[in-house]
């Protein structure tokens, strides 16, 4: 063991005076541990929150969609599907239909009406996320009869006072070339003459936490049943999942270029730009929190070393009188900073990992889902965050430890011995 490191360990962790410098060191270690834990948990929660919301949005609309201009319904062609599947980075292609409707239910003598988006896709390919979000009833199945079975969001079910087994009236227009309820030139007379009424049965109620635009608006049905009741054999477009999200924009452009006019494509990030901007705003605040916590940890190191210098002034004078040079003396206090930072960082990593695993398993902290879109604190354990925080805290601690180290090196032996 190098003499500087040995003396640094003795100075920091061996009590030799009534003022208890060891206690001061433990306070410093605790401060760094708490700061490191807070930094890691901040990154883990912000990343976990973004990933959870992104998973929910992708489950509703995939990574990207391909449609025709003006949202027109069209007949799918095997040739189009083959051309899309040959695009590099495309993982899966699923046809879907979206149709604006009005849902009507009855509560006693009172009639309840609510607008909704009726979305159909192959029931056999219902995302696991949506199946797991069903809080009442069961998922839809592929329709083999004349029934129109639907899944409704919890907020919409509450507004219409419906649940599994309830029958609702689906009001739409059957002659529209798009999934819209009204064309720009339609009059009330046109709307009434094209009115299409269908009865649907609620099979289940889902709750994703995405209240506005999803749980209060989106109604899920089997694509085959939807085509049978409204627009035989036609679809609104293709939903595409990709292998590499980093190349999503490139793949989106390739899909539009491959099919040509009147097709166009867009990503889930473009469709829900407001939500993703909100997530980005939260991520932009994170560096400010990290800087604040890091500064506190660094000043904790500086103040601790300065206190140790005051406590060990006589010992410093004795070492200098015995021939220890200023550079060696600086190394002692830099070694002290390294030891304190190392122990604090190790404890901080263990605390952060322990809390993360505990919360992921037991979900002790609950959140209001209507405000945060999730029920429990989302934590993403990414060991790159642990390494990054550890490296930053250790580097800054050593960097700013030069200040008290230079103070110690500048002491005069005679003055120090007489203190």
TrEMBL record:
It is a multi-pass membrane protein. It is found in: Cell membrane. Residues 289-412 form the ABC3 transporter permease C-terminal domain. The chain crosses the membrane at residues 21-46, 288-310, 331-358, 386-403. It comes from the Bacteria. Residues 26-254 form the MacB-like periplasmic core domain. Its main location: membrane. One of its GO terms (cellular component) is plasma membrane protein complex. Belongs to the ABC-4 integral membrane protein family. LolC/E subfamily. Keywords: Cell membrane, Membrane, Transmembrane, Transmembrane helix. One of its GO terms (biological process) is lipoprotein localization to outer membrane. It comes from Prosthecochloris aestuarii (strain DSM 271 / SK 413). This is Lipoprotein releasing system, transmembrane protein, LolC/E family. PANTHER family: LIPOPROTEIN-RELEASING SYSTEM TRANSMEMBRANE PROTEIN LOLE (PTHR30489).
